[in-house]
């Protein structure tokens, strides 16, 4: 049946005519329901169109023969397939999708080096993936898999990379140099808290949205073109030793429960805002020695004992620092930068507030709330930090609004 759907247009390349065939699939998509169907494609060197492995195909499908599929290769909602292989496939012109194939344990395509897009989602029994390795791919999303490593990928430049809910993935180490859209990491590793990330060659990235990682090493990172957000990570220490600027976005650290040290020794300018909130062990904010200008708002909330931004001389938005501890010495320094209407030199152009002894410092981000006295008699008691553990979704809403107001 399948062969009838193929319109082989044999191209005279070399002597093996069958191996030189370009097969155009009428209707654009062919569905493989059995190994016999797969074998029917074996004489095609190039398959023009997409190949879909049907829901009932398997348990083993060998697609050897074609070196290229110009469209997609998809396995979707197949509860039978266990192994998928091809000894010849080098290029997938479209998407390589493996979605909801929960018996799939092995993918072996040792020549595959190029695909436009990878989407692997809900392949919860996968044990081994062998690719070329894949080194040419724009967009990658790997979610809800049992992959233990990503050795099948050898990325140089990539647009989007999203890794989430891969429960056995404990390490991601890549030579990637640029990331032209988004890197999103969330809930990987055992219990969603185990991913170690090493990107030694990453020089610039547009958006970084980094959650639930145990380490995030970016020694070469020089520019974040958009924003870098770090939420609910498990690292104690974070450093961006070579980062000099965010060209159009924010830097934020929210709810990184173990963070004690965040250092940005070369960072001079943040085009958007700076938000450091609810990192309850971060008692000294001193890691921004060269930070001069902030294009958005500054929101610093936590259990700080000291906040230092010694080079700061230009804040376009509001400046709001509040701690559960006494940061009055730090506030004295920032007071001098306040808007002229508030008695300062005007380096800070939006509203200005700096408060100590605020028991709500980790949960309340309403800049108008005064820290001292707000909590009847408990003002000076740092042991009240536990109050900061209460979930307050308003934190995120308010941060969003501040960022928006500044963007106007
Ligand atoms: C996943 O695939 C299985 C097997 O085909 C199917 O029974 C199930 O409904 C699919 N799940 C979803 C969410 O589509
Ligand atoms: C950091 O930046 C400097 C100056 O641009 C460069 O010479 C150095 O190689 C960079 N370090 C890393 C680890 O990339
Ligand atoms: C990001 O910034 C780097 C360094 O300035 C630049 O070379 C690159 O083209 C920028 N990329 C995007 C997508 O803006
Ligand atoms: C993972 O990160 C997200 C977003 O930052 C957060 O909501 C979630 O609680 C974190 N998960 C764990 C296990 O910490
Ligand atoms: C503050 O972070 C802790 C984890 O350290 C989290 O449980 C709590 O929900 C966060 N509070 C807010 C207001 O986000
Ligand atoms: C913080 O981290 C930086 C860079 O990794 C390091 O040089 C510094 O000694 C650390 N500071 C503390 C107090 O641990
Ligand atoms: C903060 O509380 C401590 C201890 O109660 C007190 O000594 C200090 O004066 C307070 N600081 C401010 C700025 O209110």
From TrEMBL:
Primary location class: secreted
Compartments (UniProt record): Secreted, Cell wall
GO terms of biological process kind: fungal-type cell wall organization
Keyword terms: Cell wall, Glycoprotein, Membrane, Secreted, Signal, Transmembrane, Transmembrane helix
Residue stretches of biased makeup (Gly residues): 370-379
Signal peptide stretch: 1-18
Annotated region described as Disordered, given as residue ranges: 348-380
Residues spanning the membrane: 386-407
A GO CC annotation given for this chain: cell surface
PANTHER family: RECEPTOR PROTEIN-TYROSINE KINASE, SPORULATION-SPECIFIC PROTEIN-RELATED
Annotated protein name in UniProt: GPI-anchored cell wall organization protein-domain-containing protein
Record organism: Triangularia verruculosa
């Amino acid at each position: 049946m399948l062969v009838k759907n193929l319109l082989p247009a044999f191209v005279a390349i070399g002597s093996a005519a069958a191996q030189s065939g370009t097969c155009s699939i009428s209707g654009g998509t062919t569905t493989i329901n059995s190994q016999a169907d797969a074998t029917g494609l074996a004489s095609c060197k190039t398959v023009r169109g997409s190949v879909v492995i049907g829901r009932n195909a398997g348990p083993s499908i060998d697609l050897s023969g074609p070196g290229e599929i110009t469209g997609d290769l998809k396995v979707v909602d197949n509860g039978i397939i266990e192994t998928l292989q091809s000894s010849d496939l080098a290029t997938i012109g479209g998407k390589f999708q493996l979605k909801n194939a929960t018996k799939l344990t092995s993918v072996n395509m040792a020549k595959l080096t190029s695909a436009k897009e990878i989407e692997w989602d809900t392949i919860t029994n996968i044990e081994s993936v062998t690719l070329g390795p894949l080194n040419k791919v724009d967009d990658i999303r790997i979610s809800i898999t049992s992959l233990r490593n990503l050795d099948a990928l050898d990325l140089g430049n990539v647009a989007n990379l999203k890794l989430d809910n891969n429960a056995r993935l404990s390490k991601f180490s890549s030579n990637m140099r640029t990331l032209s859209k988004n890197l999103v990491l969330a809930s990987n590793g055992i219990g969603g808290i185990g991913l170690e990330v090493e990107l030694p060659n990453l020089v610039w990235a547009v958006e970084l949205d980094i959650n639930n990682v145990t380490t995030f090493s970016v020694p070469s990172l020089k520019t974040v073109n958009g924003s870098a957000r770090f939420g609910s990570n498990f690292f104690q220490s974070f450093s961006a030793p070579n980062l000099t600027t965010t060209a159009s976005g924010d830097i934020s650290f929210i709810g990184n429960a173990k963070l004690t040290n965040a250092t940005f020794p070369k960072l001079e300018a943040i085009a958007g805002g700076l938000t450091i909130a609810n990192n309850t062990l971060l008692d000294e904010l001193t890691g921004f020695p060269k930070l001069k200008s902030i294009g958005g708002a500054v929101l610093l909330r936590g259990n700080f004992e000291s906040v230092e931004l010694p080079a700061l001389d230009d804040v376009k938005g509001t400046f709001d620092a509040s701690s559960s501890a006494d940061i009055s010495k730090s506030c004295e320094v920032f007071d001098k930068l306040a808007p002229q209407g508030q008695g300062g030199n005007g380096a800070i152009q939006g509203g200005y507030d700096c408060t100590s002894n605020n028991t709500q410092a980790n949960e309340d981000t309403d800049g108008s709330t005064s820290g001292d006295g707000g909590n009847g008699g408990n003002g000076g008691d740092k042991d009240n930090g536990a109050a900061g553990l209460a979930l307050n979704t308003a934190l995120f809403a308010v941060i969003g609004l501040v960022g928006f107001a500044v963007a106007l």
